[in-house]
Amino acid sequence: MVHTFLKLACGTYYSTLFLANGEPDFDLNQHQQLTHLVGLEYGKSFQAIRHGWIENNVAYGLLQTPETIKQDVDKYYLHPSFLDCAFQLIFHLLKHDI
């Protein structure tokens, strides 16, 4: 079974969960390289992942609101960009199968 975890908050911060797990396993650049490898090119609005951690079969991600969607975020309960980025974390769980 595959799980992803997404924590949404205002501003950029590291929760105690992430600090306990140490340095991130991947950053935005590594994430973009992985998605490019599978043929996906995400626009600026869907590049919210800043760092991520892998623990067993769970992917954790720290997101930062992209400038391109800041004016629209309050119009949604959950902006489509954040939902999509949660799904994008799955690539890191499956990267050994790519």
Describe the structure in your own words:
By secondary structure, this protein is α+β, with helices and mostly antiparallel strands. 30% of the residues lie in helices and 20% in strands. The chain has a four-stranded mixed β-sheet with strand order 1-4-3-2. Strand 3 (49-55) and strand 4 (58-63) form a beta hairpin. The longest helix is centred in the N-terminal third of the chain and has 10 residues, at 28-37.
Provide keyphrases for this structure.
98 residues, globular, single chain, 30% helix
Q: Concise description?
A:
With 98 residues, this protein is α+β, with helices and mostly antiparallel strands. It has helices at 16-20, 28-37, 80-88, 90-94, and strands at 3-7, 26-27, 49-55, 58-63.
Number of strands: 4
Globally, the shape reads globular
* Measured distance between first and last alpha carbons: 17 Å
Unreliable runs:
10-16
Fold blueprint:
Layout: E1 3-7, H1 16-20, E2 26-27, H2 28-37, E3 49-55, E4 58-63, H3 80-88, H4 90-94
Parallel strand pairs: 1-4
Antiparallel strand pairs: 2-3, 3-4
